Structure formats: C-alpha cells, structure tokens
Amino acid sequence: METPRYADPLVIAGKTYHSRLLTGTGKFRDLEQTRQATEAAGAEIVTVAIRRSNIGQHPDQPSLLDVLPPDRFTLLPNTAGCYTVEDALRTCRLARELLDGHNLVKLEVLGDEKTLYPNVMGTLKAAEQLVAEGFEVMVYTSDDPIVARQLEEIGCVAVMPLAAPIGSGLGVQNKWSLLEIVDNAKVPVLVDAGVGTASDAALAMELGCDGVLMNTAIAGARDPVRMALAMRHAVEAGRHAFLAGRIPRKRYASASSPSDGLFF
Predict the structure, then answer these.
(1) Taking the chain, what is the end-to-end CA distance rounded to the nearest angstrom?
(2) Does pTM surpass 0.85?
(3) Alpha carbon of 31 to those of 27, 67, 106: distances in Å?
(4) Residue 262: pLDDT above 80?
(5) Are 46 and 73 in contact (CB under 8 A)?
(6) Averaged over 102-119, what is the pLDDT?
(7) b/e burial code for range 173-198 (CB count within 10 A of at least 16 → b)
(8) Which are the catalytic amino acids?
C-alpha cells in the first residue's frame, strides 16, 4: 500500500512541507518554463536570487511572483553572488523589505569565483548576525561536519552542505562527510549543489538527507520539465528507500528462496 505523502512531512522553521525537493528559479528559458518545471518538480519551496530576479523591485518588468505566487509557494530568497558578509546581510534585509517581513532566507557567502565554494568564516559571521536580527536561516555550507554543527548551534534552521561544486553535476562526492552531518544534526540537512541527474538525488536521500535543492540540474537539462519530474520521483524513491532500510551488503550470493522446506 502506498504511504501517503503527508505521513512523512519535512518541517523547516516550524512549517510543514510535503515535498522534499526544493528548486531554483534561475537559468530557465523564460518565466513560463520556470513555472512548468517548478510544478513538475512538485516543489513547495523555491529559491529566488534577489540580485538577479525581479520580485517587485522593478515594477515595469515581468515579475517572478506572477508565475510563482507567494500564496502557493514558499519563496526562499538567497544571497547568490555575495562574496562578503556585508553584501549577504544587505541582500537578506532587502528581501525582507520586498516580501513584507518575510524572514526565511538561504544564506550563501561565497569564497571563490571558480569553484563557488563557501567562505566558511564569512558564512558563520553572517549567520550569527542574521539569526540575531530574527531571520530564519537556511545555510549553504561546505561538507565539514564541525562547521555544520557550529551553524546549527548559532541557530540556523537548516544546514545545506554541498555534494559537489555548484553547477558541476558531479553528484555526491562526499558520502561519508554527509553521513556524519546527517547522523549528528538536529535540524534538517539538505544537499545543496552538485546534483546532476536523478540517481544523484536518490543517493542523497538514501543517505538520510532530509531534502535536496537543485537548479542547474533541471534548468540545464535538454528537457527541463521532464527532468524536474524525474527529480521529483527520485527524491521520493530515495526517501522511501531510506525509511525502508536497505539490506546489508555481502560479498557472496544469498538465495532469495530458502533451500529447506522444499516439497521435492
């Protein structure tokens, strides 16, 4: 019997979601394709790069809110493209102003333009300040379990370690680090960055991650809407597999039918 989706909710900052797939809104052909892919993914939380997306700061231009209205989706403003603590703080404050007091944000403080790896020290500093200002911070970070723990202790509502560099499509390259983070976290752990195809998303979920956030893997696919659907099924399948519990790995075969008790 199929398990109802609502039986296994994702809870972030006290709010319940049925989908564990979070999607970005950049890199699509146009706003209509953004809408179609988001709906195919079944996403309920969508990231918005405040420095690149129009959510009302340019009233004479098409707005993302026209196709992804806040009454249907939880908007997750992010600080993509911010390389300093000050820029990240300023961007989050602007998002709260544009979205009428919206406090849920995704923090990124980047340290390198080539790899887009996080600046860990800057991330910790910005997270501490944002939490002090009443923001609910979901934070992009490295796969360092110690840093993940520090961000949780600061008060972040979710930690989002990379599986591989942003946009690389390399898949999960750091399985043991992710397992360590998942095993010790008391807040949701969501893989952010590195997913390339459906099997990558399924593996992240099978490791016990609470969700996956992706943009390039969907928007950069030959057929973004179909890939969004594939990712939706992969995340759901990976979660069910994790909850079901896989069989132990063995070097040798184990017959699926016992040899004792045969009728001949």
Answers:
(1) 34
(2) yes
(3) 10, 7, 21
(4) no
(5) yes
(6) 94
(7) ebeebbebbbeebebbbbbbbbbbeb
(8) 106
